[in-house]
Structures are given as C-alpha cells and as structure tokens.
Design a protein that fits this description.
With 271 residues, the protein is mostly helical. The protein has 15 helices and no strands. Helix 3 packs across helix 4 and helix 3 runs parallel beside helix 5.
Length: 271
C-alpha cells in the first residue's frame, strides 16, 4: 500500500465525483482507486474475526472518508443520480464498494420515502454478510430515522411481525440504531415490539434482543427498569432472565439490588 498523499487523494476523489452521474465509469474508477491504495499485506490480529467471505481491498479509512465527503452533498443535490449510483455499487462483489452504496442510500433525501425505503427492504436479506447487514440497517437509515421515524418504525414492525425468524431478526437488529439515535425518544413502541419474543424466546433472536435492551437501558434507564419489572411480574423464560442478569451492570447499585429481589420473588419460570 503506497503512502497516502492527502493532496493527491483529494484530486483523485474529486475526479471520481465528476463521474457521479455515470455509474459504470464511476465504478471502474473507484476500483482503480481502491486497488491503488489496497493493503496487500493485510494481516488480521489474533483477536480479529475471520475475514468476510466477500472480497475486500483493505483500503485505508482515510480513502473511504474522502469518498464520503465528496459524495455526501451530491446525493442531496441530485437524489436520482445518487440512487442510480447506489444501485450499481450494491451489485458489486467488493466490500468497500457495497459499503459506499449503503452510505449513498443513507444520504439521499427520503422525501418521497419510497425510493429509499424500497431499496432498504430489497437489500436487507438475512443471508447478506453480517457486517454489511449491520451497516445497512444503521447507515442507510440515517435520514429515515431522523426525518420519518414513525414510518421507519412501521417498516421495522412489519419485519418483526413476519413469520420468518430471519426477517424478525432484521427487525430486531434495526431497533438498535433507532434507539441509539439521539433524535428518537418514542420508546414505548419499541418495548411493545420486543415483548412477545421475551415471553417466547427464539435462540436466533436473543443476542439482538439483549442489544436492544442494553441500548434502551442506556438511553432511558427509568423506562427500562419499569419495563423489566413488568416482564418479571409474569412467568418468564430462563433465556429472558439471563438477559436481565446481564443488564444489571448498566444500572446503579440500588437498582441492581431491587432487580435481584424481583428475580428472587418472580413467578415460577416457564420452560
């Protein structure tokens, strides 16, 4: 990987920006750029998860950041071109290229919402690589969460209510960036969405449910404590009790003591 010259990189990225309305040429130039800055001797550390099953250039973060800076305003100025470019990039096999597609989708103004919403629903498939899927549900939904939170919540609800555990998984995962968003504070619908799964847990969903509850506990500890007390006031499956125990370190010492007392006094757990 060559040393990154900021001046050269900015000029190269600006040249790519000139191809914003020509997806095929942009993609060709993007691959040339990523290939030039590729880290060909990349070695993951011992504690790093295995490399994804998707090819990657291991390009420096600075390259990606400059691309995002160049393209953000263009998506606002020409949403149709941003969507067309995102469509092309999403079909590419390379990790960095697909991540850029996700970024573009998150920068396109969501009014009307259908073009962005339809792509998120089409792209969000349980079989997608986990890191791509997580990025899609967080970065591609940025403006939806901030400008149309109720409409986005309805989409999440449709996923959660789906009969397929894989689609339900998408819905649960989508709740985490929604709750994390500081502009969102309508937590009661989130509690209602996750309740059925805490009473009838499915192994595939439990890690996601724990992530949602941890995020809720940090954003709104009082509401979360009230909710947990309600949950534990009914016969509660062991898997859900384990989640509650894992949440305890988030709360202050007095709250932890109260939760322990509730756990001891709770109704007999269901199998």
């Amino acid at each position: 990987m060559p040393a990154v010259s900021i001046a050269r990189l900015r000029a190269e990225v600006a040249g790519l920006g000139d191809l914003f309305t020509r997806p095929a040429e942009f993609t060709f130039g993007l691959h040339n750029l990523l290939d030039f800055y590729a880290d060909r001797v990349y070695r993951a550390g011992h504690n790093i998860p295995p490399a994804p099953l998707i090819p990657t250039y291991h390009a420096p973060p600075l390259v990606i950041q400059q691309l995002q800076l160049e393209l953000r305003a263009k998506c606002v100025e020409d949403p149709a071109a941003g969507l067309a470019l995102a469509d092309t990039l999403w079909l590419d096999p390379y990790l960095e290229v697909r991540k850029l597609a996700v970024f573009l989708l998150g920068q396109v103004p969501p009014k009307p919402s259908q073009p962005v919403m339809q792509r998120i629903q089409a792209w969000a498939r349980p079989e997608e690589p986990a890191d791509i899927l997580k990025l899609l549900l967080s970065e591609a939904t940025v403006r939806l969460r901030q400008e149309l939170p109720e409409q986005w919540l309805e989409t999440i609800q449709s996923w959660v209510n789906n009969s397929s555990p894989g689609i339900q998984f998408l819905g649960i995962q989508s709740l985490v960036p929604l709750v994390e968003d500081r502009q969102f504070s309508n937590f009661p619908p989130v509690f209602r969405l996750i309740s059925p799964f805490l009473y009838s847990p499915q192994p595939i969903l439990m890690p996601g449910l724990q992530d949602v509850l941890e995020t809720l506990a940090r954003r709104s500890p009082m509401e979360t404590i009230f909710y947990l007390r309600q949950i534990m006031g009914s016969p509660t499956p062991p898997a859900t009790i384990r989640i509650v125990r894992r949440l305890m370190p988030i709360f202050d010492a007095e709250t932890q003591d109260n939760l322990r007392k509730i756990l001891l006094a709770r109704p007999k757990a269901v199998k």
